[in-house]
Amino acid sequence: MTDPVLALTDARLTLAGNAGPVDILKGISLDIRKCETVGLVGPSGSGKSSLLMLMGGLERATAGRVLALGQDLTAMDEDALARFRRGNMGVVFQSFHLIPTMTALENVALPLELAAVPDAFPRAEAELAAVGLGSRMHHYPSQMSGGEQQRVALARAAAPRPAILL
Ligand SMILES: Nc1ncnc2c1ncn2[C@@H]1O[C@H](COP(=O)(O)OP(=O)(O)OP(=O)(O)O)[C@@H](O)[C@H]1O
Ligand SMILES: [Mg+2]
């Protein structure tokens, strides 16, 4: 079997709320392999987004290990994490986090331009067409429905062809 793309070993997350510490993830062990598509299902507030944030290196595990493509995210500093994410991860946030002053096309082209992809805009157009937004490319996020904004966020995350799409 191939090495896992994501490997969590007894990953824990405790956050310091103002009403005292909250144990959000209580020891998650999980391997995800290449080409696997995994759905995370659970009640609201059960920790799905928090787990994705750990896998994406956007939140640091309180204990345990999180390996992505064989690299230990729990041992990286912020700069190393940012570089690793830029090269390997696409993230669709629950609240999208589109840049409000940029059109759909500019939002999707941005990560491609940051990665110095030569045909950033044609590729961004193709990604938007693929999610059915060919006729909304020049709209701003505030001019789109919630589902349309979510599709822009999907196109933006997938456009750089990341090894890991969260
Ligand atoms: N900064 C924080 N401090 C303390 N507790 C937090 C913090 N952020 C999130 N939580 C708590 O962590 C728990 C898990 O939140 P999370 O966002 O991971 O849930 P979720 O499963 O994604 O929920 P939903 O389906 O509603 O998106 C929640 O109970 C939430 O209240
Ligand atoms: Mg969530």
How is this structure best described in words?
Helix 3 (104-114) packs parallel to helix 5 and helix 4 (120-130) crosses helix 5 (146-158). This protein has two domains: 6-89, Rossmann fold (3-Layer(aba) Sandwich); 104-161. The chain has a four-stranded antiparallel beta sheet with strand order 2-1-3-4, with helices on one face. By secondary structure, it is an alpha+beta fold. A hairpin with a 2-residue loop joins strand 1 and strand 2. It contains five helices and six strands.
Q: What is the CATH architecture annotation of the largest domain?
A: 3-Layer(aba) Sandwich
CATH fold description of the largest domain: Rossmann fold
Order of helices and strands: EEHEEHEHHHE
- How many individual domains? 2
Approximate strand percentage: 15-25%
Task: Work out the number of β strands.
Answer: 6
Largest sheet: 4 strands, antiparallel
Q: Give the overall shape.
A: globular
Q: Spell out which ligands are present.
A: adenosine-5'-triphosphate, magnesium ion
| CATH class membership of the largest domain | Alpha Beta
Tally of DSSP helical segments: 5
Question: Could you tell me how far the N terminus lies from the C terminus, measured between alpha carbons in angstroms?
Answer: 22 Å
Overall pLDDT: 95
Radius of gyration: 17 Å
Structural key phrases:
166 residues, alpha+beta, Rossmann fold, 4-stranded antiparallel beta sheet, two-stranded parallel ribbon, 5 helices, 33% helix
